[in-house]
């Protein structure tokens, strides 16, 4: 099983607006005819359908033991992701195969539902973006090798995680690839800003929000030879499909009574998750499509508004965003929404259920705090998913026998500033968050420096210890 796969696909871009097709060996982001977004498809996919689902399960399960870096991460599912690369093209930094952690009995009882967190914050740059970036940079290496390019500039707009991931992969690949990231000034946490700076990327800040930065990136990609690395890049969507494959494999390819919650943001991840499940279903690898529920904050909810209406009355309208603790969700006009529209239609035709729920900012931050208070490492997007689970239960979208898988898209340490703001009750009014005492936590000071200076070492230890005993009510050790 250490042999690299023999199968090679023939990938092409398919416009989700007009249906036009373009060669997959080019840097396309929007359709030259209508400016619609693309999905990548494989002309040879019918060859994969000739292999029984049981055989595919055996192949992917056997690759769990493989030590070849080219097949250890997202490319364990090589034939389903980007089967045009050679081993030398593939970039692997430890992405993928992130743990799925079941909640403890206390949190299960508190929520009234059994569920799991998939900790994508344990990817190399501490977010799920690495899945798509590993595929996108493998594609760039493939193009550089095939066309003998001497240099290519990568560029992305970001609320933090995309820039961190893009800069890290560019730094690792090095050579012909250079990295530039555009960030909305003051809208990125210090931890997320530190990452691309530390990776050596050129960081450019623009006034406004993510949507403003994205428009500038789109202008550059439409008019200059640059590699756009946002989820508008269809190669990134392919890499992110691995999230769906890993969920299916973890549950032994049995997704009956499973519900997958995904924060929508720019809609790239939910596109990838739904498309990934569709591929598994088409190949007979899974027999049942799981229920998928997207989650949006009321501060940026265009997709929720669209799906909240009856089908005959649905009209998509971008919204003006308000500040959100789930910063990756603070997008009023998701680039991948046309992909969502077309893929969800197919998902529902194949028997899958799809919903979108809306949650409040207060619920998002408290969802993160509740999860982490019970031993998880959920970011604010993970908190958004937990808030979405609670809302879905209120709307009777879940049955008691169903189990939910929640997406913690990044590591909680990236959003530690929001936790601090909650504990100290200093959120600006536009967040509409009023902390509750039961979720706040503070360090307790025992003695002060002036008192310490006046005591000998032995006196300090005894006095500090006595204070701690008083606080904790510790029972003295019994004499032997």
3D structure, described in words:
The protein is α/β, with parallel strands linked by helices and about 475 residues long. Among the domains are: about 100-125 and about 235-440, Rossmann fold, CATH 3.40.50.1100; about 445-480, no CATH class. The protein is about 40% helix and about 15% strand. It is built from 18 helices and 13 strands. The chain has helices spanning about 45-50, 55-60, 80, 105-110, 130-145, 160-175, 190-200, 210-225, 235-240, 240-250, 270-280, 300-305, 335-350, 360-375, 380-395, 415-425, 450-455, 455-470, and strands at about 10-15, 20-25, 40, 100, 115-120, 150-155, 175-185, 200-205, 225-230, 260-265, 290-295, 355-360, 405-410. The protein has a 6-stranded mixed sheet, with helices on both faces. Strands 8-7-6-9 form a 4-stranded parallel sheet. A 3-stranded antiparallel sheet has the order 2-1-3. A hairpin with a 5-residue loop joins strand 1 and strand 2 (about 20-25). The longest helix has 19 residues, at about 130-145. It is globular, with a radius of gyration of 24 Å. The N and C termini lie far apart (about 60 Å). The model has no long low-confidence stretch (mean pLDDT about 95). Its EC number is 4.2.3.1. It is an enzyme of class 4 (lyase). Pathway: Amino-acid biosynthesis; L-threonine biosynthesis; L-threonine from L-aspartate: step 5/5. It holds the Pfam family PALP.
């Amino acid at each position: 099983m250490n042999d690299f796969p023999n199968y090679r696909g023939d990938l092409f871009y398919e416009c989700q607006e007009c249906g036009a097709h373009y060669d997959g060996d080019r840097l396309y982001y929007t359709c030259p005819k209508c400016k619609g977004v693309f999905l990548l498809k494989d002309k040879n996919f019918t060859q994969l359908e000739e292999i029984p689902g049981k055989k595919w399960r055996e192949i992917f399960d056997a690759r769990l033991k493989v030590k070849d870096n080219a097949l250890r991460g997202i490319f364990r599912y090589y034939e389903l992701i980007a089967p045009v690369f050679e081993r030398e093209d593939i970039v692997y930094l430890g992405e993928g195969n992130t743990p799925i952690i079941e909640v403890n009995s206390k949190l299960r009882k508190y929520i009234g539902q059994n569920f799991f967190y998939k900790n994508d914050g344990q990817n190399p740059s501490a977010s799920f973006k690495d899945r798509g970036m590993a595929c996108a940079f493998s594609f760039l290496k493939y193009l550089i090798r095939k066309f003998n390019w001497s240099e290519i500039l990568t560029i992305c707009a970001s609320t933090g995680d995309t820039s961190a991931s893009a800069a890290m992969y560019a730094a690792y690949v090095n050579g012909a690839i250079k990295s530039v990231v555009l960030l909305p000034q003051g809208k990125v946490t210090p931890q997320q800003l530190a990452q691309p700076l530390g990776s050596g990327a050129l960081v450019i800040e623009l006034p406004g929000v993510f949507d403003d930065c994205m428009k500038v990136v789109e202008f550059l990609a439409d008019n200059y030879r640059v590699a756009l690395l946002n989820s508008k890049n269809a190669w990134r969507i392919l890499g992110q499909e691995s999230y769906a494959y890993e969920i299916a494999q973890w549950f032994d390819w049995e997704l009956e009574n499973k519900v997958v919650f995904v924060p929508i943001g720019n809609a790239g991840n939910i596109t990838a998750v739904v498309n990934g499940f569709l591929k598994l279903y088409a190949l007979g690898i899974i027999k049942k499509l799981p229920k998928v529920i997207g989650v949006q904050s009321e501060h940026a909810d265009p997709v929720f508004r669209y799906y909240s209406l009856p089908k005959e009355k649905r009209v998509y309208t971008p919204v003006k965003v308000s500040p959100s603790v789930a910063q990756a969700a603070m997008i009023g006009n998701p680039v991948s929404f046309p992909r969502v529209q077309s893929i969800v239609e197919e998902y529902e035709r194949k028997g899958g259920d799809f919903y979108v729920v809306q949650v409040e900012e207060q619920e998002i931050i408290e969802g993160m705090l509740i999860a982490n208070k019970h031993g998880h490492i959920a970011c604010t997007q993970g908190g958004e998913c937990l808030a979405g689970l609670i809302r879905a239960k209120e709307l009777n979208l879940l049955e008691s026998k169903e189990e939910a898988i929640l997406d913690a898209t990044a590591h909680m340490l990236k959003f530690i500033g929001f936790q601090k703001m909650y504990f100290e009750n200093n959120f600006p009014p536009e967040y509409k968050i009023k902390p509750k005492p039961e979720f706040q936590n503070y360090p307790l000071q025992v003695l002060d420096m002036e008192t310490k200076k006046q005591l000998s070492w032995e006196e300090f230890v005894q006095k500090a210890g006595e204070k701690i005993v008083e606080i904790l009510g510790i029972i003295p050790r019994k004499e032997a």
